[in-house]
Write a structure and sequence with these properties.
The chain has 16 helices and seven strands. It has about 375 residues and is of the alpha+beta class. α1 packs antiparallel against α3 and α3 packs across α6.
């Protein structure tokens, strides 16, 4: 299946396997027990906490996931915390598991200060490589019919270990044998972002959906818990209904029709995957001059940017965290930047700038040629 619920089940399963992998190695298990003892949490309670947090990590998502992220000023994690703390979930969790688990889950989902003893639990759900990413890369790849997101996640889980952190708790590391799988995961993330998540056609419908939801949500959410009143099916029903309305031609109806009838803008100008400030200035000028030349055409400038990874890379000291690799032969910890040359080649981020035009496919060549000519002239000036 390819819904948020099945994804959450998958994250819970993979997080559980990761926890078991850490427990399997004797030194990691002792470190885990010793650390958790400091805050009076037993190992089985920690595993329960991990599983519950993994299951609920996306409970605050609005309909259509990240497409609705800009509708409310709060991030989905903050909405999820409100649902856990202020809804009926808190009481259910306390009754079924242990006292204080609801607040522990809220802490793990928040961006605030976390007790160092719980740091390793958070990293298993939300870190450089975590159960969340492992699941959505594999699941999205399968259901989109592409192979970009595939990697040997089971091998990566097998090599997970825990070591003492300078922050006072524990941090994740992997044995040297897991490096190639970690490299494969980051490459899978890069390919999925560039080829699927920010594909030009998928991206334009994300824009339509986001704009529709901004018009739709007015008076729908009086408080954060109202998010629970709607899901993809109920909102899609509203989209179809709005698309069929005869009266009125507001933005809400306009975007609904585009989504339902699949009538979308087409790309007339696009940068590579690593646009910089100069590319941005050129794109702004291209859009401005296209608007001036074709006043009856609707143009749309879109910036797609994302972070592929945050690992430390040699020569880039300002950004990234060094990740520990355990050499089991010498029983030493080495840095990922020392052990892998692949990460130096994988882009840390990507940035694509596109200009869309609401024109028929038959006329695209003319507009693309005009955009290219403007870009060439602007490039010579800037």
């Amino acid at each position: 299946m390819h819904t948020r619920f099945e994804h959450s089940l998958g994250v819970m399963e993979l997080a559980s396997r990761a926890f078991e992998a850490v427990q399997f190695e004797k030194k990691s298990k002792k470190r885990l027990e010793h650390t958790l003892k400091k805050i009076n949490i037993k190992v089985d309670q920690a595993k329960t906490l991990l599983r519950a947090t993994a299951l609920l990590h996306d409970v605050g998502h609005l309909p259509f996931s990240h497409g609705g992220e800009d509708v409310l000023p709060k991030r989905h994690e903050q909405i999820g915390i409100a649902i856990i703390r202020d809804g009926e979930l808190s009481g259910l969790l306390e009754k079924e598991f242990y006292s204080g688990i609801g607040e522990h889950i809220a802490l793990l989902l928040s961006e605030g200060q976390l007790p160092p003893e719980l740091l390793i639990i958070k990293k298993l759900i939300s870190g450089q490589f975590d159960a969340d990413r492992m699941d959505y890369l594999s699941r999205d790849s399968l259901h989109c019919g592409v192979g970009y997101g595939n990697f040997d996640y089971l091998r990566l889980l097998e090599t997970l270990r825990a070591k003492e952190s300078t922050e006072g708790g524990l941090e994740l590391c992997i044995e040297r044998g897991g490096i190639h799988t970690l490299e494969a995961m980051i490459l899978a993330r890069y390919w999925m972002f560039t080829q699927v998540y920010y594909h030009k056609t998928r991206r334009i419908y994300d824009i339509y959906l986001s704009r529709y939801l901004k018009a739709w949500y007015k008076n729908q959410y009086e408080n954060l818990l109202d998010v629970l009143n709607y899901d993809d099916v109920t909102v899609m029903s509203d989209i179809i209904e709005d698309a069929q309305r005869q009266a009125g031609n507001g933005d809400r109806q306009s975007y609904a029709r585009r989504i339902v009838e699949r009538k979308h803008h087409h790309v007339v100008y696009e940068t590579g995957n690593h646009a910089d400030a100069r590319d941005m200035r050129i794109a702004i000028e291209v859009e401005k001059k296209l608007r001036q030349k074709y006043m009856s055409v609707d143009f749309l400038l879109d910036r797609c940017a994302g972070t592929v990874h945050k690992f430390y890379i040699k020569g880039d000291e300002e950004y990234g965290d060094e990740f520990p690799i355990h050499d089991t032969v010498s029983d030493r910890y080495l840095g990922l930047s020392e052990e892998s040359s692949i990460f130096e080649k994988i882009p840390r981020s990507f940035h694509v700038i596109r200009i869309y035009a609401d024109v028929p496919k038959s006329e695209l060549l003319r507009y693309r040629k005009a955009a290219a000519e403007i870009a060439q002239r602007e490039g010579e000036v800037i």
